[in-house]
Design goal:
Layout: H1 7-27, H2 33-62
Length: 63
């Protein structure tokens, strides 16, 4: 059975996720390869989410 979450549940999980990401970034030395890797991953994820959201909104407006 597929587990469907409410928007509120997703928001809570997203807040927890980003809290953990911020904690990891704060504990990782600036300029280190590990820090740069984390930042690159976040930038890629952000770009993908923005692209997916834009495509969904564009389709919604078009149709």
């Amino acid at each position: 059975m597929e587990n469907e979450m409410t928007i509120e549940e997703l928001r809570v999980y997203a807040m927890e996720y980003f809290s953990q990401v911020i904690k990891i970034l704060q504990e990782t030395p600036d300029g280190s390869a590990e820090y740069d890797s984390h930042v690159e991953d976040l930038e890629a994820m952000s770009a993908k989410i923005a692209e997916d959201s834009y495509e969904w909104l564009r389709l919604k407006v078009t149709y």
